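name: query_chain
kind: protein
chains: 1
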Amino acid sequence: WDGLMTVVYQDEHYEVAGYETGARPRPHIYLLRKIPEGKVIRAMHPYRPDEVLRDPNPGDQPQR
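structure:
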């Protein structure tokens, strides 16, 4: 995800406000905020909590 991505969760729209790195099992931490009314949406990602990305190289440095 990046600053152009709009994340949709429970019919609400959020933009990426920041990014942090963390320790496993959460090496990528995205900070989200609700998008302002009238903002142009360029790309949307419907987020699902059960969405899982498998690490193709366990033990290696996580890819962003």
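note: Residues 54 and 62 are 11 Å apart (CA to CA).
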